[in-house]
Amino acid sequence: MKFKKDLYKLDSDNNFYKASEIVNEYKKANPNSNVISLGIGDVYFPISKYVAKEMNAAIKKQTTPDFIGYGNYFGIQELRKAIRDNEYKDFDIEEIYVSDGTKSDCGNILELLENDALIGIPSITYPIYKNTCFSLGRKFEIIKSDDNFIPLIPKKHFDCIILCSPNNPTGINYSKEVLKKWIDYAKKEDCLIIYDNVYFSFINDGVKSIYEIDGAKEVAIELRSFSKHVSFTGIRCSYFVIPNQLHKDINIYWRLRTVNRFNGASYIAQVGALASFNDKVKKEIDKNIKYYKDNASILKTSFIDLGYEVFGGNDAPYLWVKCKDGYNSFDMAMYFLNTYEIVIVPGSIFGKDGDNYFRISALGRREDILKAIERIRKHESKAN
Amino acid sequence: MKFKKDLYKLDSDNNFYKASEIVNEYKKANPNSNVISLGIGDVYFPISKYVAKEMNAAIKKQTTPDFIGYGNYFGIQELRKAIRDNEYKDFDIEEIYVSDGTKSDCGNILELLENDALIGIPSITYPIYKNTCFSLGRKFEIIKSDDNFIPLIPKKHFDCIILCSPNNPTGINYSKEVLKKWIDYAKKEDCLIIYDNVYFSFINDGVKSIYEIDGAKEVAIELRSFSKHVSFTGIRCSYFVIPNQLHKDINIYWRLRTVNRFNGASYIAQVGALASFNDKVKKEIDKNIKYYKDNASILKTSFIDLGYEVFGGNDAPYLWVKCKDGYNSFDMAMYFLNTYEIVIVPGSIFGKDGDNYFRISALGRREDILKAIERIRKHESKAN
Q: Mind telling me how many Å the CA of A382 is from chain B's nearest CA?
């Protein structure tokens, strides 16, 4: 059969799943181990009790004749309005779409473009973009980054660029100046920017949304999610903005596409997402975000103190750390696992240029983070 | 920008959404109207109280430190096992995937195939297949059907065929003989069959799953959903089977693909789906299905009685009715709306060859169906 010949050939030995399998094997081989994960981006805090209460009410409604079935292809109207009112005041509700996750969205958005569109993907970034292009049979090329992990404006034409800011894995939030250059490039080259902004709630003082920059509405689609700040990693709800200014028919197109391709995010998840805009929940979220940020700050200080070179961690829950002693990133991860029983994410997962780095996450429990640091410290002092 | 030039050009004036807009316009123009829908496939019965209870418990769990986050890319293991044990005893759990809806699945599955794979779509079928191919830039051709709306085995090569049985819109369940011919064709041509089997719970005595036919495991992927029988149209949960026999690496491929493209169906929805396999719930479901089937039987008898030629309705919740007096299907739908205030679905939505037919659904409330029939009867007797 005409199955893809090279499906994931390139990445089958180097991805999150593979990395997590290595950890599982270690645990199996060492049943008395006490592994601490500074690895994948799952969150520590569970969902808010108020959000849960509203979801329970939504379920109750689904047991009555007034239950909600098909029809909310673009999201329930109240949720789209709440997103607009809280985060996108300059936009119409009709420019905002609710979906089931940014991982799906970053591939789905490509359905706006012709199949031979050339997509640019920064050299160190969330690996899903590249693998999504593989899976969809899309043409893509890697864009080099500078020494600060900022993707360099290409000298050639791209039809689409996928930017992630605050960046996964580097934890760096792109500045106004950087984004202005990208928007200028996009305008000049008639290039669509897909702006993955899922870590927006961790940003301190920098650019919170690409639409803060002049001209962005004419070139950019911004993606956000409820996964991190509302703890919806298992509940699944995301959203994105397609500005009318991109093209006169763009939202007519997208509505038609969506009606034909997607029956909407789960109604229960959407009601929960809506509840996250309640004032009391917003305060809880702020508290949780502060906790994660304090984690990041502790991790940053400690790893610097341990002699590591550390990037990010100010505007994102991720820190990007340079490997020591000439280790490559997979060997470094094995070293952390075997020596400290600590899980880190090898940088090579995020691109070849990430092979001298590893990612650690601040989304975990404080006690675990402190314990992890203590383990490394103890071992290092013994070694010296 | 390199936006698709022809996105939905062909179908922008002829789809479910457009049809529902016409109805909404009518209601607006006639605020005192009392429109009865025999239209889209939303279900009458709400979700089971037991399913709701289990979903509430799942939400409670999400408020605790033991909450479920990322990781169930292929579905929670208990649910995959329940599906296997109840419906796919001949398969491994690892051949079963849980997802968020068959509408998404029928497009996603195409990611197994090379981009230039030629896809065959029957001339009268669920329009989503065609529009999905459009949206994904996939090559497809229409396959003619015989006088009984059974797609004819093509004389040329296809890489993939999408079959829907029990069929939407015709309500016909393909026989063993028909399916055997398709499986033989698929084997001879090295062609993948995507078998949309979402109405399986409505089948009386015929083939319930394509895997009942010898050789099907070597050529077919079967799609099912919790939408209709568990009333999950708004809650979103579906599943499908990728047999190991299709290709030695097929499930390795698909796991890699899925980890990179999808973070799983909502955990809450999955717990609800799992609860639907409880014995008490199964009995409730049987009762609901019987109700819908009785609806179908009443509709069939009544429309025949009213002089219509009627197909389907035995193994599916849909009836496929020939338009009267040379009406085309959109005009017939307008006639039903303006004369009886009844919504039907014009057959042209399901393909050009459907233009002399319309679809009616048996998934609604008994009282509405009886009232609808009464309205037509009264008007016809007045007219005569």
A: 34
Does the distance separating the beta carbons of B42 and A69 come in below 8 Å?
Answer: yes
Report the residue of chain A nearest B76, measured CA to CA.
A234
Of A41, A115, A159, the CB nearest to B137: A115
Sheet of B118-122, strand order? B96-99, B238-241, B220-225, B192-196, B160-164, B118-122, B139-143
Among A230, A198, A245, A383, smallest CA distance to A306 is for A383
Do A190 and B267 lie within an 8 Å CB cutoff? no
The interface pTM score, or ipTM, of the predicted complex is: 0.96
Per-residue pLDDT tens over the stretch A293-305:
999 999 999 999 9
For the cut 70, the answer to whether the pLDDT of residue A344 exceeds it is: yes
Residue from the list A1, A55, A269 with its beta carbon closest to the beta carbon of B192: A1
**Beta-carbon separation of B42 and A246 below 8 A:** no
Q: How does residue A5 score in pLDDT terms, banded at 50, 70 and 90?
A: confident
Which residue positions in chain B have pLDDT lower than 50?
A: none
What is the pLDDT, as a whole number, of residue A11? 58
Contact criterion met (CB < 8 Å) for A235 and B266? yes
Confidence of residue A380 (pLDDT cuts 50, 70, 90): confident
How far away is chain B from the Cα of A1, in angstroms, using its nearest Cα? 5
**Interface contacts (A, B; CB < 8 Å):** 261
Amino acid identity, position A252: I
How far B17 CA sits from the closest chain A CA (Å)? 7
pLDDT in tens, B44-81: 999 999 999 999 999 999 999 889 999 899 999 999 99
Q: Give per-residue pLDDT as tens, A142-171.
A: 999 999 999 999 999 999 999 999 999 999
- Global pTM value: 0.96
**pLDDT tops 60 at residue A80:** yes
Q: Say what the pLDDT of residue B7 is.
A: 62
Question: Distance, in angstroms, between A134 CA and closest chain B CA?
Answer: 9
Residue to mutate among A66, A70, A118, A158, with most B CBs inside 10 A, is A70
- Residues in chain A closer than 8 A to B135 (CB atoms): 111, 257, 260-261
Determine the distance in angstroms separating the CA of B325 from the nearest CA of chain A, rounded to an integer. Answer: 32
Which chain A residue's Cα is nearest to B269? Answer: A266
Contacts of A65 in chain B (CB under 8 A): 46
